[in-house]
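INFO batch 0412 | record 1 of 1 | parsing
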Amino acid sequence: MISKMIRYDIVLYAGEQERFVDELRELGLVDITTTGWEPSESDRALLAEIDAYNKAISHLASFASSPEYNASAMVYNTGAEAYECYEAARAERQRIQQEIARLEKQAEEVAPWGRFSIKDIERLASQGVNIRFFVAQPAVFERLLAEPTEGVTFSEVGRTQSFVYFAAITTEATSVTIDGQEVRLPSMDAEAMRAEIKRLESENLALNEVFSRAAASREMIAAEGGKLKEQLQGLKVGAMAQREADGRLMILEGWAEADTVDKVDALLGAYPNLIYDRRDATIDDEAPVKLKNNKFARLFELIGAMYALPKYGTIDLTAIFGPFYMLFFAICLCDAGYGLVLLLVGLALLKKGGESMRQAAWLSIVCASATVAFGFYANSFFGVAISDYAPVIKFLDFQQDFFSISLAIGVFQILVGMAINIYMQTKLFGFTSTFGLLGWFIILLSGSLAVGLPMFGLGIPGFDASSPIFYGCIGVGAVLMLLLNNVKRNPLINIGAGLWDAYNNITGLLSDVLSYIRLFAIGLSGGVLAQVFNSLATGLSGISDMAPGTPWYGYIVPVIAVSIILLIGHGINLFMSAISSFVHPMRLTFVEFYKNAGFEMGQRSFDPVRKMNK
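INFO prediction complete | emitting tokens
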């Protein structure tokens, strides 16, 4: 559900802004509207600095879990000192890594020239002996040797299949033109470069101590970054406040949760020169949104946030789409063994710490548990039929029966979405505004009960496709849809609009329902691939053709081959199936369900000004 918000309009002296905002931070319960804020050049510099602090904290947190981290490293005296040392070490490491990459590339290029000394070459040049270095094709070099030039000596240094590396030795008075690429040798040969690379690697390794100290001091660095964020908060509030009385008064718009208004009122009442007005937020306000759900639904806020928060004053669909998403995930993965692997992964992630990581871990655990249950019912454990080992249990024939079930699930979720849309429109605009949508809901529900249920061996006595009650429901729905879709409009115009809506709804609903076939298709493809990898493992390894009486050591190689094929095959299939199971239920939620439920996006989330280092 969406937490109820209270709007505050606050008027205070501009000179008290800093103290007032600081006390709001201490309270941490009021969101001051700063929507539409455009940063200045100085503000952009502050934003860049905040981003740099965030990246530093993220990098140091990652470094703290790496083998290079020294857990006994001493912390710095202050967060500012720790950040400065970190930035200097990061820049130095970047320089060293770039230099190592340059030297490695250059060492590879200069390796064919072997050992040489630039000083010796320069000393010979000062005595009138010039040495120039060339790279040419073998045919060119052979021609140079066959046609010697007076005063020029050619000496081969190295050779590859395509090129010859050679030196041309001349005196000052001799010039030579060679059909090849002249090379200017660097100051070091390949061996000296490799020695320099080792020295740089040692320097790079020594920087780990600086990073370890900074990682141990990252809470202090976060506190310094928090001060910058608080500074940015103050800039936003001051920039977006409305100025009156020649700038001496400021008018602020703020928001607080209804559960905390007593604390907010107490703070505002402590300012004798402050005036405020409060009222309940409405759907027409651009109020911030905060979701308040139970533990189960809160897990799926992570999914909903990938699309958008609901608009204030509408319905939070998280608790409604959560069970559907969990079911869709299980259907798409459709294997108890794969679900068990993801369950173990989720349990392992619980130990990683961090609120967002724990939320993702619990979401994985919930969806994986559903997958284990549905995969068992669908008779699949790593592609192996469970019924072969438990023949007395009746399993679902997924390939034979689930095509129609997937369509039924789609119709059911669409009906739930339409019911939510009807309720929301009734709440906002009155019951008469929903007649057109209600007509379609009645027609779709009646058709599902009268035609759909008998396809599954079920049915409502006296209510089928030929019963008068069914035709009566269809008639009521048609009247609402065609004649009363807008009670304030001329009936003839309603008929035309209703027919146009009928065309759009028929094609739209058909497309929406057919989209749910992807549940069947993805689950089936993953199951078939699992069976294929099992067949490949037993066929390619030859273990299925082992003769009876083969000694135990004869099974060693086939078992190893089977294990490798199964591990690689099921690993690939699990990875691809898990991605599909994550993405496609999300698409069904955000496109088909949200559309039929009349979902509206919110502008922003509830983000009160607060102390950033708490």
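INFO post-check: Residues 203 and 257 are 54 Å apart (CA to CA).
INFO record closed
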